[in-house]
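Q&A log
Question type: sequence-to-structure
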Amino acid sequence: MYEVHIERRAVKELEKTTSSIRQIILEKISTILSMQPFPKGDNPKRLKGVRGFRLRIGDYRVIYTVEKNLILIYAIRHRKDAYRY
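Response status: OK
Response body:
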């Protein structure tokens, strides 16, 4: 089992979403991502040009990195803004 850490800026982005979307995202993170950093049915994908992966959850993207037993989530954004830094 992996330890999941959500950075402060990702928490702020998550707080901007509606409560129903927020609940779905947190549920996916706690049930799926904490068990496997690369779940098969949920379309994880390696990012190009940036170290990390993205997990698609509806119209939102969870951007994260994996280091040993730690999953570090550094962005939770709508798909239109997900890859802009």
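Response note: The chain is about 25% helix and 35% strand.
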